[in-house]
Amino acid sequence: MMAAVIGTCAFSIVIVLSILIICGLPLGELTMGGQHRVFPKKLRIILAAQLVLQMFFVVIILQMGGFLPLWFSSDATKIIGLVMAVYLSFNTAANFMSKSKKEKYVMTPLSFVSAVCFWVAALQIK
User: Fold this and answer.
1) Confidence (pTM)
2) pLDDT digits (tens, 9 = 90+) for 70-88
């Protein structure tokens, strides 16, 4: 399913950006309203925890697309996918309203594409 591939690519870009922010690169303007050019160490720890979740959700969309075997029942996987689709939909709106132009113009499209792909993949899983 193409939505799973596209969603994985978009979400993987976010994962790479997260890793770079965790490593201390000055990319903090891409997240949290651009409050921190370089993330403080405490926030990097939180972002590292989110990174684990982000990787989990890449596995979920690949499972919904039929590229990986399911870890959970198809119903549970669908619910996880729908929850993620709703989250990314709200995240898209939040990114769009960000004071940071970098967050608005980089993260909004990535979040939007990911949201659409999660919606499509979750609604197609049987």
Assistant:
1) 0.88
2) 999 999 999 999 999 999 9
